[in-house]
Amino acid sequence: MKKCKQEDPAPRPQIALPSFVVRYVAVNLAASAIRKLHIIGNLIIMAYFFLLRVGEYTPSTEPRQTVPLRKKDIRLWRNNKVLSNESDLMTLLSADAVTIGLENQKNGDRNSTVHHYSSGDSIMDPVRAVAHLVFALHGMPDATPLGTYRNENGQKCRVRATHITSAIRLAAVRCDLASFGYDLSRVGSHSLRSGGAMQLKLAGYDHDMIRKLGRWRSDTYLHYIQSQIGELTAGVASSMARLTWFHNVA
Known about the structure:
By secondary structure, the chain is α+β, with helices and mostly antiparallel strands. The chain has one domain (2-216): Intergrase catalytic core (hpI Integrase, Chain A), CATH 1.10.443. It is 36% helix and 12% strand. The protein has helices spanning 2-7, 19-30, 35-50, 89-93, 126-135, 161-174, 190-202, 207-214, 236-241, and strands at residues 74-78, 81-83, 97-104, 110-117, 148-150, 156-158. The strands form 2 sheets. The protein has a 4-stranded antiparallel sheet, covered by helices on one side. A hairpin with a 5-residue loop joins β5 (148-150) and β6 (156-158). α3 (35-50) crosses α7. The longest helix is centred in the first third of the chain and has 16 residues, at 35-50. The chain is globular.
């Protein structure tokens, strides 16, 4: 087993996506008048803030235990009171918080709940993004998956994982991520989960908070705090170079 591990190629996980790429998506897709792009953009914003796996909000081509988010799994709040998911768009957009419930996940955890308050940012806000996604399901059954919408011809459609990946990679190219040292072949849908975790780490949130939001059951989430992100070690060398005196008591 040890020899097999040594001979295996090194893993190439998808690279954490910086928040300015998500903002690009928010400006150019989520605000689009084209319904498909509008839904894709808002799904990406939601996935970034909630550290979602792509299978938690898009359909899978294979049988899996993960149950993608549905209309009934969403609760939008205003002043600590739940709004009806059948409310008009202006009412839904007035929400100041959102809760999502995941019935089943890849790691086997059932009925997990994650809550976010509004970011206060009119462009990049998980509450506004989810409000738009819920409004797209107006009049549809409660079991309808999030990411479902009616196109310009009135046909019911659903966003898939390939749509998310294509949108993220296009945004990465438009934001010129290659000039920031990124290998664009390693940018994909999982970059949103990794990017959200990295943003929390750089913002100073502790491991418990990151694990809770990402619903990690163990320290495997540390794989998402990627050492190749330069800002992670900003100031470390200065701290190590600081003159310090200490004595040995052993």
